[in-house]
Design brief:
Order of helices and strands of chain B: HHHHHHEHEEHHHHEHHH
Distance between the termini of chain B: 13 Å
Largest interface: A-B, 50 and 44 residues
Number of helices of chain B: 14
Number of helices of chain A: 15
Structural class of chain B: mainly alpha
Radius of gyration of chain B: 20 Å
Oligomer: heterodimer
Number of strands of chain A: 6
Shape of chain A: globular
Number of strands of chain B: 4
Strand order of the largest sheet of chain B: 1-4
Distance between the termini of chain A: 26 Å
Strand order of the largest sheet of chain A: 1-2
Helix content of chain A: 55-70%
Strand content of chain A: under 5%
Mean pLDDT of chain B: 86
Largest sheet of chain B: 2 strands, antiparallel
Structural class of chain A: mainly alpha
Shape of chain B: globular
Low-confidence stretches of chain A: 334-351
Mean pLDDT of chain A: 82
Helix content of chain B: over 70%
Order of helices and strands of chain A: HHEEHHHHEHEEHHHHEHHHH
Chain lengths: ~350, ~325
């Protein structure tokens, strides 16, 4: 019993439950949902698809988590996705096909993403502009920059080495998910095995106090925006490689909302402070599962938004302590004895 | 130093600085436009700013209430779209009289807002997420009602849309502008002079203290989202007047424009400080950026968004510098 209550108290419990319930629903509605095939040494199936197509969202959610942990928000990730994809596709289409070309394209795209992150971070950390407005500037202008790079056209590419990052396989698994996993492990090690995560939480908890305590708040804030843009840049490469083209107008459109949703569903508060990278990954998987479910179950396109709204609402209500308290209060007619003060939550070492 | 400042005489109040900065920038932009383009100097350009942005102004006023409490409302764009689609459906498909349809639209908008407010207050769901759900929900309703745009040719709507109110000379405004200005005036009065308005500010300042003071914070929170929903619905109706159509794709990204207008107008996103007048100026800033780009006329679509971003940047940084220097 105590083990069970301990489990339900864990902050990742409800997101994981929601994910499992959604998958269970899929299994009931369509028994072949879980079928995984091994074809040409590659795994195929809906579950693999969720991982593969979810990789960009997972990456962006990881970057977004750190930004949100510092009380910030980054609306420009969608534009960074478009810019990174456009630049990489432009380079690949203008140069002879080959691994070298692809690597240079990746380097250029990620370099530019880094610069964009530096710009966002400069606006927020140095000029002190409110994050939502500071990143809105790049969100608006970024689509234009992406179109400028691509000359207003959709650039299609035909390069095997380039497409690998989106749809390639390694050890029978999609390459994209391995990259996302690598970024997740690296970021987790970096924030939880060093003091970095603690410092980020301190800045989010109270920027002024942490500055007075001797933390370089501004530099840390700057750093998380650069990291977030870098994640978005990698995601942009994956998205454009996946569809063999760069669409400046539609690549990564509204991905910032999905990413923020993923972070919040994963248990990180938008008010900053404590964060959970693992939660963000689960949140991203939940959202991707939702999308895959919609297509796998053949829900009519006009009902997709409603379906999404209802599921997200259910997940958020489940997660809300106030909702669970009210639900419990209704089950027991008589008033319950006041709940014991919650034990201080364990500080999580692993992300 | 103190005597020096005293000798210098008038200094604007700290809390008025952002608005004054925005106003100065706005006048600067207008003078720049008037000196660059001959036609820009006519008064009708200023009035057109209002005519073209009346619906946005109403939406942004609702958003101001929400942001003053420290919340945010991402659903406004979808609610605007939903209002236009419901109007189209009721007027064109079911042949309702215009005023009945208008009443239904306003009630639906207010109810949606109240629902989101209830989620935020009773279940402590973060405003960003609760209204994001509302955004999906309203947009989803749009698509379920109709996947295609309605063209609205109702006689009453057409009369309302085409009526021009002359202001002497060549100048004129539309009914939408009058409606928007009434909303602005009522909102400004409510925020400044009523108990409800002061509660809105105090929640933004410190929700905990406001509650401990015995203010009705829960009721007020739900009310501001209801107001925002109502204003979005009204904004949707004004958009129907402006475009004579009900399109489920209306108002995509409108929420960010509204938030940007509120923030450029000097309201702080954490709440507790800001004015409706600032929001009006914020809308004017965004409008004048668009007008300048239109007058230039040589920019293609991607340069338009880059220049919009750049001008947004210039405005925000200048405002930031002005408010910082005088501190």
């Amino acid at each position: 019993m105590t083990a069970l209550t301990g489990l339900t108290k864990h902050r990742l419990f409800w997101p994981v439950v929601a994910l499992l319930v959604l998958l269970l629903g899929d299994l009931i509605a369509s028994p072949s949902f879980f079928k995984i095939e091994l074809r040409d040494g590659h795994l195929y199936g809906n579950l693999v698809d969720i991982l593969k197509n979810g990789a960009p969202l997972i990456l962006i959610a990881i970057g977004m988590t750190l930004v949100i942990a510092t009380r910030g928000i980054d609306l420009s990730v969608g534009s960074v996705v478009a810019i990174s994809g456009a630049l990489a596709c432009l380079w690949v289409s203008d140069n002879p096909d080959g691994v070298g070309t692809t690597l240079v394209a990746f380097g250029l795209a990620l370099g530019l993403s880094l610069l964009l992150g530096v710009w966002n971070g400069w606006l927020v950390a140095v000029l002190g502009i409110q994050p939502i407005i500071a990143t809105l500037i790049l969100m608006v202008a970024g689509r234009g920059i992406a179109q400028l790079i691509s000359g207003g056209q959709i650039i299609t590419v035909n390069s095997h080495s380039f497409e690998w990052i989106g749809s390639g396989f390694l050890f029978t698994l999609p390459g994209a998910i391995l990259i996302a996993l690598a970024v997740f492990v690296l970021a987790s090690l970096l924030v939880r095995r060093s003091a970095l995560g603690l410092l980020v939480e301190a800045v989010g908890g109270n920027p002024e106090a942490s500055r007075l305590a001797g933390l370089r708040s501004a530099r840390l804030t700057w750093l998380v925006y650069v990291f977030c843009a870098l994640c978005a840049g990698i995601a942009g490469l994956m998205i454009s490689a996946n569809v063999h083209s760069a669409d400046a107008n539609h690549a990564g459109l509204f991905i910032e909302l999905d990413a923020i949703l993923a972070v919040v569903v994963g248990g990180t508060q938008l008010t900053g402070g404590r964060f959970s990278l693992g939660g963000a990954v689960i949140g991203a998987l939940l959202i991707q599962t939702l999308t895959t479910t919609v297509y796998a179950l053949g829900i009519p396109p006009e009902a997709i938004m409603l379906f999404k709204a209802v599921v997200v609402l259910a997940v958020c209500l489940l997660q809300s302590p106030a909702f669970r308290r009210k639900l419990r209060g209704r089950q027991r007619a008589h008033p319950v004895s006041p709940e014991p003060a919650p034990a201080p939550e364990k500080v999580e070492v692993g992300a | 130093m103190t005597t020096l400042t005293r000798i210098k005489g008038y200094r604007p109040q700290q809390r008025h600085l952002p608005i004054l900065a925005t106003m100065a920038l706005l006048i600067g932009a207008y003078i720049f436009g008037a000196s660059s383009y001959e036609a820009f100097g006519s008064g009708q350009v200023v009035l057109d700013l209002f005519i073209n942005n009346a619906f946005l102004l109403v939406v942004a006023v609702g958003m101001t209430f929400v942001i003053l409490t420290g919340g945010i409302d991402l659903s406004v764009g979808s609610v605007v779209a939903l209002s236009t689609v419901i109007s189209g459906d009721l007027l064109q498909k079911h042949g309702w009289p215009a005023y009945a349809a208008i009443a239904v639209v306003l009630v639906v908008g207010a109810l949606l807002g109240a629902g989101m407010g209830a989620l935020i207050h009773f279940f402590e769901i973060q405003p960003f997420i609760a209204t994001l759900i509302g955004m999906f929900f309203a947009r989803g309703l749009c698509y379920t009602i109709s996947t295609e745009a309605y063209s609205i040719d109702n006689a009453t709507i057409a009369t309302l849309a085409q009526t021009q109110i002359p202001l002497g000379g060549e100048l004129h405004i539309s009914i939408s502008v009058v409606a928007a200005l009434i909303v602005v005036a009522v909102a400004a009065y409510v925020l400044a002079f009523t108990r409800f308005g002061r509660t809105v500010y105090s929640i933004g300042g410190n929700a905990q203290s406001a509650m401990l003071m015995g203010l009705k914070t829960g009721r007020t929170k739900i009310a501001v989202y209801t107001i925002s929903g109502f204003c979005s619905a009204l904004g949707g109706l004004l958009l129907v007047l402006y475009k004579s159509s009900g399109d489920p794709l209306n108002g995509v990204g409108l929420e960010l424009t509204a938030i940007a207008a509120v923030v450029i107008g000097g309201t702080i996103l954490t709440g507790g400080s800001g004015y409706v007048l600032g929001t009006v100026l914020g809308i004017m800033v965004l409008g004048i950026i668009q007008t300048l780009i239109t007058f230039d006329g040589t920019l293609n679509s991607w340069w338009t968004s880059i220049i919009t971003g750049a001008l947004l940047f210039v405005f925000i940084v200048l405002q930031r510098l002005v408010t910082r220097r005088t501190r």
